[in-house]
Backbone:
């Protein structure tokens, strides 16, 4: 099953089990086969572990995971942190930026769902702070930004632009009259850098432009298709030697 699941990894998170997963071959529609998809993610990263996820709401809420919960009982939030082993932190996206983080020395990991609302609201800073509470040092934390809608694909209007502070201007380029192209991944990377993390990598994979690999909410909406398709990004602590 896991072999049918596209998985992108990065050297930035080397030695930490992780993956930015693409569309699952077992899907028949937007979210058909999602339980099988979740099982395939665990099989790929850490067989036998518990996949812990949230009811994502585009918030800035970060939840510390001490013990895994049933998927049906998952709380609301948009970021997870843990120092527990045998747990896989997972989140779903379809244009928003998935961010996976680790402080290898402290043995602390995090995962954040960073759409524009969450990033603007502080979900990344909250994730870093929660990791620190578990013993991480922000200067040792490294983060990777997975598949997300790219600036060339992300047209926004004047009202959207006006919701950001003046110092975010460099993440908007002028497009057609009254519109801009927003660099979500660049904005997310900047928020992480300003939070003091030690390293940030952007995989620069455009969900909108790669329909064979990734779901895209915006693409589906523009094409009149189902908009509930999502892909999973996940991270776990390695098993102790």
Residues:
């Amino acid at each position: 099953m896991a072999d049918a699941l596209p998985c992108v990894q990065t050297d930035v998170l080397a030695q930490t089990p992780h993956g930015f997963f693409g569309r699952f071959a077992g899907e028949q529609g937007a979210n058909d086969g999602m339980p099988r998809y979740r099982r395939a993610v665990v099989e790929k990263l850490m067989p036998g572990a518990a996949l812990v996820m949230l009811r994502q709401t585009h918030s800035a809420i970060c939840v510390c995971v001490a013990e895994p919960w049933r998927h049906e009982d998952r709380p609301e939030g948009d970021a997870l942190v843990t120092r527990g082993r045998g747990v896989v932190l997972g989140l779903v996206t379809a244009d928003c930026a998935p961010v996976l983080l680790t402080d290898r020395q402290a043995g602390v990991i995090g995962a954040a769902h960073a759409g524009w609302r969450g990033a603007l609201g502080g979900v990344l800073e909250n994730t870093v702070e929660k990791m620190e509470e578990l013993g991480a040092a922000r200067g040792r934390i490294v983060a990777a930004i997975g598949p997300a809608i790219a600036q060339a694909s992300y047209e926004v209007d004047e009202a959207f632009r006006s919701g950001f502070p003046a110092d975010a201007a460099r993440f908007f380029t002028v497009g057609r009259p009254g519109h801009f192209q927003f660099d979500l991944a660049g904005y997310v990377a900047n928020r992480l850098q300003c939070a003091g993390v030690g390293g940030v990598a952007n995989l620069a994979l455009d969900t909108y432009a790669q329909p064979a690999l990734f779901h895209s909410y915006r693409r589906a909406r523009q094409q009149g298709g189902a908009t509930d398709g999502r892909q999973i990004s996940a991270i776990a602590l390695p098993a102790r030697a």
